[in-house]
Amino acid sequence: MEELKESVKSGYLTEKFKLFHLKDSQPREYMYHYHDFHKLIWFISGDVEYHIEGKSYKMEPYDILLVNQGEIHKPFVDFSTIYERYVFYISRGFLEEHSEAGSDLNQCFQTAHEEQGNIIRLSAKESRALFETVKLLEGVEKEQVYAEMYSRILFLKLLIELNKCCLNNPDVYHKTARYDKKIVEMIHYINENLSKDLSIEALSSRFFISKYHMMRKFKEETGYSMHQYVLEKRILAARNLISAGCPATTASVECGFKDYSTFSRAYKKLLGQIPSDAYL
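Given the sequence above, the corresponding C-alpha cells read:
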C-alpha cells in the first residue's frame, strides 16, 4: 500500500472550466499525475515530450493535447527554452450539461481515448481561427458585466469548433507517439478488464512476457509499478460508479476488489475520503 505515495492527483476544479496561461523557464520536476477532470493543453513553445498512459508525444507549436479524466501523464521538459502553453481544466459535467443528441462536446476527448491519439494538429487556418477564441477568453476580465456568461459562450464556441474540426477530418488525431506496443496493449487490457484477475502472474501469462521484464518495462514506460497502476485505476473506476449511484459494495466487486475492507482502506488512502462520500 505504500506505493500509493508515488502517485498524485493534481489540480482542483471548483468551476465548470478554468483557463491558465503558463510560462515555465525555471527547471522543475513534474510528477506522474492524473486529474478528476479533462485537460486540454494548447502548446505554444518549448522542448517538451508528453507521456500519457505509456505513450510519448513530441510536442510541436500549436499542438492541442487532450488528456482524459483519470489518464496518467507527465511532461518531460528541456528548460533551455521557455515552456509556454494554455491549459484548460474542463469538468465532464459541463460537457454533458451542454451536449445534445448528435452533438456531444465530449466527442473529441472520447475519440482521443478510443483511437489512442492524444495530439490534435489542425491546419494553419483552423488553428488561427480557434486560437483567436482562446485569446478572447484570456482577455475577459472577471469583474466586467456579463463576464461569466461571455466566458461560457466563448468556451462553448471553442469546444464546438474543435469538435467540428475533428469530425470533419479524423486525420487531425496524430498517432505519432513512441511506445512499447506490448505495454500499451497491456494498459488497454487492464482498463477494459478491471473486474478480472490482473495479478502479475495472470498478465505475464496472457501477454507471454516474463514477470520481471514486464514489471521493469511497465515502470519504465508509465512511471508506475503494475500493482500501483491497477490499484489506482480500480479505485478511480469504483469512485465513478459510486458517484453515478452504484452501491459502494457493488462497485468494489465490479472493479476487482475481493474484500470490501481492503477496498475501503485503499480508497481512503488514495482519495482522502471514504467510499460513501462519493454520493455527496
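The chain is about 45% helix and 20% strand. Try to locate this feature in the C-alpha cell string yourself.
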